[in-house]
UniProtKB/TrEMBL annotation:
UniProt keyword terms in alphabetical order: Iron, Iron-sulfur, Lyase, Metal-binding
GO molecular function: lyase activity
Name recorded for this polypeptide: IlvD/Edd family dehydratase
InterPro entries, per the entry: Dihydro-acid_dehy_C, ILV_EDD_C, ILV_EDD_N, IlvD/EDD_N, Sugar_Degrad_Dehydratases
Stretches assigned to the Dihydroxy-acid/6-phosphogluconate dehydratase N-terminal domain: 45-357
Pfam families tied to this protein: ILV_EDD_C, ILVD_EDD_N
Amino acid sequence: MSQAGRTELRSRNWFANADRPDMTAVYLERFMNYGLTPEELRSGRPIIGIAQTGSDLTPCNRVHIELARRIRDGIRDAGGIPMEFPVHPIFENCRRPTAALDRNLAYLGLVEILHGYPLDAVVLTTGCDKTTPSGIMAAATVDIPTIVLSGGPMLDGHFEGERVGSGAVIWKSRKRLAAGEIDEEEFLQAAVASATSVGHCNTMGTASTMNAVAEALGLSLPGCAAIPAAYRERGQYAYATGRRIVEMALEDLRPSRILVREAFLDAIAVTAAIGGSTNAQPHITAMARHAGVEITTEDWREAGYPLPLLVNMQPAGTHLGEGFHRAGGVPAVMSELLKAGKLHGDRLTVTGKRVAANLEGREASDRDVIRPFDQPLMENAGLLPLSGNLFDFAVMKVSVISPQFRERYLIRPGHENCWEGRAIVFDGGDDYHHRINDPELNIDEDCILVMRGAGPIGWPGSAEVVNMQPPDALLRRGINSLPTIGDGRQSGTSDSPSIVHCSPESAAGGGLSWLRTGDVIRIDLNAARCDALVSVEEIARRKAEAPPAIPVSRTPWEELYRANVGPLETGGCLEMATKYRGLSRELPRH
Ligand code: FES
Ligand code: MG
């Protein structure tokens, strides 16, 4: 790659700054202690960061510890100098009170690293849910050449003759445990069977969704997202990614040229077609905001909701990650969307080529896994934004609403997307667990379960607790799901018919704060409305009363986070952070 005509690499300002030769020695000397030479660092070769998200605390991304060797090989072979550094761990399943707290913390940390160190470009290693958006948010803020290498899903799981996928098997087995169909040991066996190898969740949960989104945005090499972590192509893509980022550094190909509005609209479309996680909504919105692009409710309604479900993968379908990869992965899905005129084919990507050029010849090879656009698994399958007197904004993943569920909740013949139910209100996860089986609540199939105090401020962090399962007595009668509503989130691996991300949240004075157990809620998906049938006067009276209590902050970060976080509607961003953009255009002071 010719270096002619490019702007000077920012690392030169540290290691070859004619104005401050006195500082050069300070910057250089400690890198010598593991064998780098002053000649290398002063050679004018790009210094490429490898943002390492894998660790024992983030097992979903642990494969990156191995893959980093191949990234380094690629960087070296292309003439760059790799520098690997750790990113704050984010492990979805284990981090209390919720991993969502750490998306913005990892973001902040990465912004400081990318801004404050002599890096010319970065490889973001991604996998577990929030490791992808946090990295991309930081890359957008700093705007240095960036490429995403996903770690890939685990191999498919099998148990008792069935494919068992991450998360999905837990939700299903929990219900069977509560209904007395299996014991605790069988529950554990089924869960373990879904975790087959290195890699992230093998369902179309939040991890697979967000890595597909990264690729759809144009930040990964085409085909990267779906390759299972244990496949040989992973190492090969790691090498190619390392090579390509060196070229990108020399071409000065920055996120600001890739993360344009059309890229985010296409990410919304791809989320619909793959049956992606509801978590894509705050994450896509947050990445867009940090890139200076506003994504609105209308964008979800127009670019996402009307699109069909094309990918037959759990929880909306039956296959898992290996099947998706073999069928063609994200490029095959994007090909379908492009042919149908639902994608912007002329925007730039990390390959240096346009989307349409990247997708040439990338047709699906297995139509049971990736359907043609005109023969989808479901029409109108994108995330549906809703509003009403309980919230200004919420979303529902309609691709997981079963026909049986729709039928059960008809309130009038011919209105198959409209239902009413009696609200059962819970204040946080503990309250739900203590009371869900309380006979006095008299929960039947006409109830709607409501979770409040689970939003960014209330929890804090916004927890995946809205996909509540019905009481054991209903499960034993075969009622496997009730409608749920909440200001928190739901797991991306869940097939619950949940209305999530209610904004403003209860802790910020949103409508859920005045809702009472026993109120009737009407959900009308045709009108995209959700309202409590409570009079304006009664609402005003209740609003004058004290709001539901929320737990106090237990750590300094929780307090900082609560003071600065915005609603899930606008991405759950640290609001003060969104004004910082293009940091790499000015160098930090000595
Ligand atoms: Fe980490 Fe699902 S828990 S990817
Ligand atoms: Mg999750």
